[in-house]
Amino acid sequence: MTGASRITVIPLPCPERFSAGDDLAAAVVQALQVAGESLRDGDVICVASKVVSLVEGALTALPPGDPQTARRTLARRQAARIVADTPGVVITRTRHGFVCANGGIDASNVAAGTALLLPEDPDASAHRLRAVLHERTGAELGVIVTDTFGRPWRLGQTDVALGVAGVPAIRDERGEHDLDGRPLEVTEAAVADEVAGAADLVRTKASGTAFVLVRGLPGGPAGRGSDLVRPAHHDLFASGGPTATERAIAERRTVRSFVPDRPVPVEPLRAAIAAAASAPAPHHTQPWRFVRLTPPTRVRLLDAMASAWREDLEGDGTDPATIDRRLQRSDHVLRAAPELLTAFVVTDAAHPYPDARRQRAERDLFLLAGGAALANLQVVLAAHGLGSAWLSAPVFCPSTVRRTLALPEDHQPVGFVAVGWPAQPPPPRRPQNPDTFLLER
After folding, report:
1. DSSP 8-state code for residue 183
2. Residues 204, 108 contacting (CB under 8 angstroms)
3. pLDDT confidence of residue 262
4. What's the pLDDT score for residue 242?
5. What is the number of alpha carbons within 13 Å of residue 262 lying toward its C-beta?
6. Residue 245 host element (H or E)
7. Measuring CA to CA, which residue among 383, 385, 392, 440 is closest to residue 414?
8. How far apart are CA 63 and CA 70, in angstroms?
9. In a 10 Å sphere around its CB, with 0-12 CB exposed, 13-18 middle and 19+ buried, how is residue 110 labelled?
10. Where is pLDDT greater, at 238 or 357?
11. Which of helix, strand or coil describes residue 30?
């Protein structure tokens, strides 16, 4: 495949609004005629994936909720994998292998309460359109189904190729040499993506330009859109690597002041609970339990705990003013947090021992598992932008907690976790020197 001397990019406006079952090839031919063009051998037609989806009937109902939330919910349901889930956007890997914002689901210029999915098989869509256009015009052409994607680390969007037929998808230059004779080891040009991006230069979202004619593209072995999809096991950014994991852990900070009227979405809570349940535990058990306190239950529990704490402090001889201050300081977090979880470990699977020493060690193992689960929970909450604080109050009055929540004796509380959106960004953590904590013997 050699370089071209000139490539021409021609917009083909089409005022038609498409719907399921429309003749897409006829619309392309009509747009060519209006533009005073006819297809030649080697031409490439770029067609917006939205048009393909409309013609193929890929319209679906949105779940309940405001449009943005509903679109993200639908994207999660359609996803093969969640890459990143944030309050503003969910990035998914679709079943096609595309990694994109909100699963590539489009809710613009469609009926309220509906959204448009990506084409079922973009390569097959490109091949069908190419075959019909060849049948009607006789031209040996290429077809690229395009869509608009963002890019990591770059502002703005560009069009990329989802489906490809009759045109190269990748130009592989590996094994060739640069100007100084050095062998090229990694160079693979994403030709179909480059053509899709060029096509986007001559149209805007409001221009009604569903098709673009690209002329003068060098020939080469025909490819497919799927050729451009990086295999999941080659994805270096699936988890960000060890540095991202270290950063996520370091960015977990204790947050005690929350935005009062901003609710916490249930999805990050569920993700954090799932992460907590992946912590290590003794004897292959899963001893973690979390109680998400409803407002009435929270009031009952905190009132009962405050009474028990006051009784303890009075027994210690603490003066009433100090007791009131300590209770108010605790209430500032526990009663005001948008969400309050009570964490437990269940010790029913603990091994029995005849002596107190081993029995105590066995119990400590389960408590350590609770600590590991709490760490996982808070790291994942922080990754979602949520603040949290682990508070130990339930540990000091386990009977009161169990009685109020109607839980059995083998539920050992390991603390509260207050959750919400931070009222202000937590300060950066001071880097830790491992030599402070690491001993060698």
Report:
1. B
2. no
3. 93
4. 66
5. 12
6. helix 241-250
7. 392
8. 5
9. middle
10. 357
11. helix
Spatial contact of 369 and 282, defined as CB atoms under 8 Å apart: yes
CB 415 within 8 A of CB 374: yes
Q: How far is CA 377 from the centre of its chain?
A: 17
pLDDT band at 158 (very low <50, low <70, confident <90, very high): very high
| The model scores a pTM over 0.70 | no
Q: Which helix (H) or strand (E) holds 73?
A: helix 67-78
Is residue 203 within 8 A of residue 223, CB to CB? The reply is no
Residue 344, H or E segment: strand 339-346
Residue 34 Cα to chain centre, angstroms: 43
Locate 299 and state its tokens.
């009031």
Q: Residues 280, 281, 284, CA angle at the centre, nearest 5°?
A: 105
- Sign of the Cα torsion 395, 400, 404, 407 reads positive
DSSP structure class, residue 186 = S
Alpha-carbon gap, residue 167 to 169, rounded angstroms: 6
Q: Is 93 helix (H, G, I), strand (E, B) or coil?
A: strand
pLDDT per residue as tens digits for the range 45-103: 999 999 999 999 999 999 988 888 888 889 999 998 888 777 778 888 899 999 998 99
Residue 418 parent element (H or E):
strand 411-420
* Residue 254 tokens, joined: 């204790």
